[in-house]
Amino acid sequence: MISEVFIKRPVTAIVISILISIIGIIAVSTLPISQYPSIAPPTVTVTANYTGADAQTVEQTVTTLIESQINGTPGMIYMSSNSTSNGQATITVTFEVGTDIDIATLDVQNRVGIAEPALPEAVRRLGITTRKANNDILMLVALTSPKGTRSENFLANYNNLYVKDALLRVKGVGDVTAFGQPFSMRVWLDANKLANLSMTPADVSTAIAEQNSRIPGGSVGGRPQESSTVFEYPIITDSDLSNPEDFENIVVKTNKDGSIVLLKDVARVELGQFNYGTSSTVNGMTSSAMMINQTPGGNAVESAKGIVDALEKLKKSFPTDVDYTISYETVSVVNASISSVIHTLVEALILVTVVVFFFLQSWRATLIPVLAIPVSIIGTFIFFLMFGFSVNNLTMLAFVLAIGIVVDDAIVVVEAVQHYIDHYKLDAKEATRRAMGDITAPVIAIALILAAVFVPVGFIPGMVGKLYQQFAITIAVSVMLSAFIALSLTPALCSILLKPTAVHEGAKGLNKFFYKFNIWFEKVTIRYSNGVKQAIKKAPLVLIILLCIFIGTGWMFTTKPTGFIPSEDGGAFFAGITLPEGSSSARTNEVLKEIEADLHKTFPEIKYVTAISGINILNRAFKSNGATVFVSLKPWETRTRTANDIAGMIMGKYQGYTKARVLAVTPPAIPGLGTSGGFSMQVQDLQTVNIKDFEATVGKFLMAANQRPEIGMAYTLFNTNSPNYKLEVNREQAKRMGVPISSIYSTISSYLGSSYVNDFTKYGRSYRVVTQADIPYRMNIEDINKLYVNNVSGNPVPMVRWLSMN
């Protein structure tokens, strides 16, 4: 008999149980904490930039080439791409659930390397980024200037220099996206001055590349050396420039008379930003915001604490009038939900204890199953490490359910032993032996049957199976562990603690109450037995009632709304804002400022509004007409309206808003499954039809979808109506004037787009040198007429001679 060893040596059972508990406590301290199990399919993103290119050019010369190589990567389910009019290409590759994300990232990166030689040189020079993607936003951190003395450029660079890298080192942080751009040496070209000197942007770039280079100087006195040589000196050259003043004094041209032209004579040089596409504010204050994403399967609570600790440490060295604000975070809802489940778990434990005591009617007898519960629950955490589980709502709810199951085995043992003590007048040790001889097999059988019920749930395929796998396995493991405890610790404690019952006629105090309760309960049991006998006699009627219940249940299943996971008030939401295509950044910022002020005025529940211009989070596209507003609400106990309520009211409020389209959505119920709640789908063009016809088809589909009563709102941000000018070159006329066609296009690209020349070093970091036309030469389409191109003789020719615009 299995339990005989523990009956003879109860200390052994107690030590094993203590050991299980200690290992379980150690295990739970290392487990990740999240709201739900990680079930999102792993994704990898590839990002490339083609400065100055429109969306169609990006798609044809960058996106398609990379996609053709990535297609067929092992484990890939599908991929999607987004090419924008600001020259950015983003490809998202989605893999099957369970795929090793590190290996998948490496596979994608290798395939991107195959495509790289075929990409434009400008794209290769800026670099192609391949990284693990995670849509799970952990928090938004923003550097602010409370007194307004620090500029956005200063905050952005301080962020990139000191804060971003420190946060990337925090355990559990997967990625940090800074919405403020790093330093760049911006060379703003004066087209008229260049034309007067018969110079082109290419001449300026050549001069900068020649005079701003990193060339080692070697050393003097190095080996081999004469015996008399005493010292060896390294030579440091001044070829690497670092300040605007250094660049201003670059010689860009030497005239025949010996005079020189400096860069400051034909351009304005400043330490600016590499890209001016994004900006951010927090509650109206200028800021530099960072979006922090969690690593897949990371501990959200631990990561959030690590981030706060890192920020507090960094804050001690912040410059004056610089502070940080956590304006959006998703950890509070995780803490609140886990705390709520733990509270329920404690309540269940107390209720089980009370009920067990009420029926066992002895503190000694009650103590045995109550001690068995925590050992079974805590011991289950050991298997969490083995299976890669996390502490989440579903595993904790499994424990709530398991409390009522794991206590059964211990109660069965206690009641059996107590029966032998009371009816056969045996001592506790002998009664335990007799009882375990009777119930060992049933205890094992019950545990196996219960495990057999739950274990198959863990093998359900797809996301549903992945979601409930941890729930089912948690219950199954805790049940099996409770059976072991019932055969080891429980009989050991029974042989030590149990005594004959004191509940009998004439008893006093609490035992007198239990005696009367037992009489009452016996009467109830008899009445119930009589009722069952009557039901057996009227079996047809009972079967009819049962059939009606089944029919009613089926009807309710078909008529009630269904869903994957119920939506909860996460205390935060966000809104994607889209202005008409072609809207400038300045116009977007004005609309964003108006919406931000209106939200604070209309909804007192709002704590923080983080407004980011230049990116729409709903499609993660960087465009001048897009913006995102992250809204954080005040604590739940201080407001009556939920995040869903407020988001819905914002949708209604801006329904007829003519300046922009505002889509307010709540985060997905399960982090990582998309950007917002609801579901998403892709419409694919399989026949390569005209892009306008395809857009019309998508519009018809959305119109039909929005007419269905089950769908609250269906939308797309796909838009091909981006206004643009098409420049047409009269090639024959240009050739007659001796102007190379390639020079025309490269000059337009350098002036109106930008040209990345090389790098410079400042504050211990490497930054880019970029040339571009100054503001007066690129504000309106007519400004192109101010541009010149040199012919083969070196004489400037105005572009208006051969250029037409549509």
State the gist of this model.
The protein contains 24 helices and 25 strands. The protein is an alpha+beta fold and 806 residues long. The strands form seven sheets. Strands 5, 6, 13, 14, 15, 16, 17, 18 and 19 form a nine-stranded antiparallel β-sheet that branches. A four-stranded antiparallel β-sheet has the order 2-3-1-4.
Task: Describe it.
With 806 residues, this protein is an alpha+beta fold. Among the domains are: 2-31 and 334-501, Up-down Bundle (Multidrug efflux transporter AcrB transmembrane fold), CATH 1.20.1640.10; 509-560, no CATH class; 572-680, Multidrug efflux transporter AcrB pore domain (Alpha-Beta Plaits, 2-Layer Sandwich), CATH 3.30.70; 727-805, Multidrug efflux transporter AcrB TolC docking domain, DN and DC subdomains. The chain has 24 helices and 25 strands. The strands form 7 sheets. Strands 5, 6, 13, 14, 15, 16, 17, 18 and 19 form a 9-stranded antiparallel sheet that branches. The protein has a 4-stranded antiparallel sheet with strand order 2-3-1-4. A hairpin with a 5-residue loop joins β23 (788-790) and β24. α13 runs antiparallel to α14, α13 (363-387) packs antiparallel against α17 (489-497) and α14 packs parallel to α16. The longest helix has 32 residues, at 393-424. It is found in: Cell inner membrane. It holds the Pfam family ACR_tran. One of its GO terms (cellular component) is plasma membrane.
